[in-house]
C-alpha cells in the first residue's frame, strides 16, 4: 500500500499543485518552448503515476515483492521473462492500469484524426475559393475581416484575408506570415492535440485545464519569437494590434463579423507586452536543465513505485 | 490529382463569375481560349463536382446545365467562421494569428503599444 500511497500523493501534486505553481511563475513566458515541454512532461507523468497507482491498488500487498518485475513486464521490458505469481489476479493487475494509460493515448489519436478531418474539409473548400499567391507563399481569401491563420499538417496552407492585406503594411504582413510558418514548421498542432485529448479525458483536473490553455498561449508566443528573429518588434506588435482592432466591432474597419464576437482571454495583451519588452531570454544552459527535468518527469512515477517494492 | 483540382477550380471560377446555369460546351469553349481541353474531360469533372455537392444540374433540352450550389462569398464566409472560431465546432485544427477581442481588450492593447512607443522615443 505504501507504493500506492506514494504514487497517489505524487499524482495529486502533479495534477493539482504543480499547474498552479507553474501558472503563477514568470519564467514560462520568457522561454515558451521550454514551458510547453514542461507541461507535456507533467501530463505524461500524471498519466503514468495514475496508471501505476491503480496497478498497486489492484495488486494485493503480498504481490508487492513482485513489483519490480511486474512493472518491467508492464513496460514491456522483460517480455519473455517468467513472471512469478501470475494467477487469475494477473489480468486485472495489467488490464486496469493499462486502460488508464491507454485512454488518454486513444483520445490523442482520436483528436489527431478529428483535427485532420476538419483541416482536410477546410482545405478542400479553401483550394476552390481561395487564390494562391506565389509571392506571399499563402492563400488569399476574399473577405473583409482581417484574418491570418494556418492549416498545419502534411499539406499545410497559410491563409490571409483580403482585409488583412489591406490593413497591414508589407513589413507587418511578412512578420505575421512568419508567425504562421513557425506554427507549421514547429508542428504545434501535435502539442495542442495532446493537451486537448488530456483535457477531454480528465476534465475535472486542474492540470488538464491549465495545460490546454497555457500550451495554446505558449505556442503563440513561441511563434512570435520565431517571427521576431527575422522581423522588427514594432512590425509584429503593431500587426497584432491592427488585426485585433480590425476584428472588434466598431473598431478599425468597423466591420462586425456576424455580430458573434466575444471577448477572449488576455492572451493578446500579454503577447503584445512581451513582444515590446526586450527582456532577455533565460540562459540556454538553464533552458537545457529545465528541458531535461521535463523529460525526466515521466520517469519519476516508476521510480516511486519501485522504491518500496525493492526495500 | 493536382490537375483534377485545378480543373475543378477553373470550372467553379467560371460558374461563379457568370452567375447563370451553364452548359459544359460553354465552359469548354471558354477554357479553350487559353489552353486546349477535351469536352469529355470537362464533362467528367463537372459531374464529379455535382457528386461532391458543389454543383446543381438540370436538364435543358438534351444537355445538362450546371450552376453552383452556393456562391463563392458564402463559402468564403464559412471558411472565415471556421478559422476565427465563431462557428460551434471550435477546434485546434486551425491556429489563427490573434483571438477575437472586445473593445476593452483592444484599448488595453492600444495603451500597451503607446507606452512602448513612448519608452523607445524617450
TrEMBL record, chain A:
Its cofactor is Zn(2+). GO terms for molecular function: metal ion binding; metalloendopeptidase activity. Binds 1 zinc ion per subunit. It holds the Pfam family Peptidase_M48. This is M56 family metallopeptidase. InterPro entries: Beta-lactam_resp_regulator, Peptidase_M48. The chain crosses the membrane at residues 29-52, 89-109, 283-304. Belongs to the peptidase M48 family. Residues 114-197 form the Peptidase M48 domain. Keywords: Hydrolase, Membrane, Metal-binding, Metalloprotease, Protease, Transmembrane, Transmembrane helix, Zinc. GO terms for biological process: proteolysis. The lineage of its organism: Bacteria, Bacillati, Actinomycetota, Actinomycetes, Kitasatosporales. The keyword Repeat does not apply.
UniProtKB/TrEMBL annotation, chain B:
It comes from the Bacteria. The keyword DNA-binding applies. GO terms for biological process: negative regulation of DNA-templated transcription. The keyword Disulfide bond does not apply. Pfam families: Penicillinase_R. GO terms for molecular function: DNA binding. Keywords: DNA-binding, Transcription, Transcription regulation. InterPro entries: BlaI_family, WH-like_DNA-bd_sf, WH_DNA-bd_sf. Belongs to the BlaI transcriptional regulatory family. This is CopY family transcriptional regulator. It comes from Streptomyces violaceusniger.
Amino acid at each position: 500500500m505504501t507504493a500506492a500511497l506514494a504514487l497517489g500523493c505524487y499524482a495529486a501534486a502533479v495534477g493539482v499543485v504543480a499547474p498552479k505553481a507553474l501558472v503563477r511563475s514568470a519564467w514560462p513566458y520568457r522561454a515558451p518552448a521550454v514551458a510547453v515541454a514542461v507541461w507535456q512532461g507533467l501530463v505524461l507523468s500524471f498519466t503514468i503515476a495514475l496508471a501505476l497507482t491503480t496497478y498497486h491498488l489492484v495488486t494485493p500487498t503480498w504481490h508487492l515483492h513482485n513489483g519490480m518485475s511486474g512493472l518491467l513486464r508492464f513496460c514491456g521490458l522483460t517480455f519473455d521473462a517468467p513472471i512469478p505469481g501470475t494467477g487469475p489476479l494477473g489480468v486485472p493487475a495489467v488490464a486496469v492500469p493499462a486502460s488508464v494509460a491507454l485512454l488518454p493515448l486513444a483520445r490523442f489519436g482520436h483528436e489527431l484524426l478529428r483535427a485532420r478531418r476538419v483541416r482536410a474539409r477546410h482545405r478542400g473548400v479553401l483550394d476552390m475559393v481561395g487564390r494562391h499567391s506565389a509571392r506571399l507563399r499563402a492563400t488569399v481569401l476574399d473577405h473583409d475581416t482581417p484574418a491570418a491563420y494556418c492549416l498545419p499538417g502534411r499539406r499545410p496552407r497559410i491563409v490571409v484575408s483580403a482585409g488583412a492585406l489591406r490593413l497591414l503594411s508589407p513589413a507587418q504582413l511578412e512578420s505575421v506570415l512568419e508567425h504562421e510558418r513557425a506554427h507549421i514548421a514547429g508542428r504545434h498542432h501535435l502539442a495542442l492535440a495532446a493537451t486537448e485529448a488530456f483535457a477531454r479525458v480528465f476534465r475535472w483536473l486542474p492540470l488538464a485545464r491549465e495545460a490546454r490553455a497555457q500550451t495554446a498561449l505558449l505556442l503563440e508566443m513561441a511563434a512570435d519569437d520565431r517571427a521576431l528573429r527575422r522581423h522588427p518588434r514594432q512590425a509584429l506588435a503593431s500587426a497584432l494590434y491592427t488585426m485585433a482592432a480590425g476584428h472588434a466591432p466598431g473598431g478599425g474597419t468597423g466591420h462586425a463579423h456576424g455580430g458573434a464576437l466575444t471577448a477572449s482571454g488576455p492572451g493578446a495583451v500579454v503577447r503584445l507586452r512581451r513582444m515590446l519588452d526586450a527582456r532577455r531570454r533565460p540562459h540556454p544552459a538553464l533552458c537545457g536543465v529545465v528541458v531535461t527535468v521535463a523529460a525526466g518527469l515521466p520517469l519519476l512515477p516508476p521510480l516511486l513505485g519501485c522504491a518500496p517494492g525493492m526495500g | 490529382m493536382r490537375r483534377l483540382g485545378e480543373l475543378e477550380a477553373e470550372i467553379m471560377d467560371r460558374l461563379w463569375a457568370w452567375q447563370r446555369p451553364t452548359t459544359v460546351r460553354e465552359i469548354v469553349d471558354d477554357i479553350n481560349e487559353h489552353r486546349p481541353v477535351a469536352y469529355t474531360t470537362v464533362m467528367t469533372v463537372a459531374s464529379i463536382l455535382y457528386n461532391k455537392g458543389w454543383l446543381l444540374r438540370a436538364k435543358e433540352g438534351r444537355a445538362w446545365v450546371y450552376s453552383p450550389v452556393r456562391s463563392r462569398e458564402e463559402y468564403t464566409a464559412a471558411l472565415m467562421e471556421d478559422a476565427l472560431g465563431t462557428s460551434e465546432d471550435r477546434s485546434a485544427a486551425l491556429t489563427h494569428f490573434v483571438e477575437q477581442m472586445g473593445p476593452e481588450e483592444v484599448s488595453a492593447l492600444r495603451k500597451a503599444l503607446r507606452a512602448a512607443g513612448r519608452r523607445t522615443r524617450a
